[in-house]
Design goal:
about 240 residues, alpha/beta, Undecaprenyl pyrophosphate synthetase, six-stranded parallel sheet, 7 helices, binds 3-methylbut-3-enyl trihydrogen diphosphate, binds magnesium ion
Length: about 240
Amino acid sequence: MFGKKKQAEEPKVTVDERLQHIAFIMDGNGRWAQKRGMPREFGHTQGAKTFKKIGRYCESIGIRYMTVYAFSTENWKRPQKEVDAIMKLLDEHIEECFVEMDTDNVRLRFIGNLEVFPPQLREKMKRIEESTAHKPFTLNMAINYGGREEIAHACNRLIEQGKTKVTEEDISSAIYTAHCPNPDLVVRTGGDLRTSNFLLWQSAYAEYYFTDVLWPDLTPKDVDEAVSAFYSRKRRYGGV
Ligand code: IPE
Ligand code: IPE
Ligand code: MG
């Protein structure tokens, strides 16, 4: 999943139970490529490499759950050439996971509305999820993911189950990430200060960390800085 041959960079920080789940809005691929006079697609290819490096690193410092925003429900608005390039990368990534799923520690989950993907690809995702269900490091890949779509989808599932009134607990149990705790820390690269429809329900009390670093440039050192910032915060959850 993260590449068998490569070792994770020497961990500089470790985390404890306060930081179990880290989520990344992997933004800035297009600008990274354009700055180099390259097509935006090149940034996505580079971004996929960074994703592996950062995933390996997060696992090595003791993170238990990682969620990455790879493609939003709104990203279909992009030029067809770019969408095609991202879908090709996704396809290749899933194929790689399929081949490597027995050899690493990653429990892979695909979150988002997967109905739009071809049946063969969905079957592969399902088999990867089933075969890795017992692994210790959970990686949620958000594809065709939108926080609003997720909440509406959850409500519809509950209606199908016969519910006529829903509680917060019902919704939490019906969203795509029901298998893991809420994110403690959400990191957005690329300099924009917004959620762009990511984990809306789950992030009600997440700590946010924004950096101008473009996703393909993100390093383990930047993760260390985000982790240090997290530990410097006081989470009050509405209390005092
Ligand atoms: C994030 O990078 C990746 C996806 C949204 C698929 P962008 O492609 O949004 O890069 P910028 O923000 O345009 O630089
Ligand atoms: C958010 O980035 C989506 C992903 C990183 C997959 P966008 O680039 O789509 O967000 P906006 O359009 O700047 O809000
Ligand atoms: Mg962007």
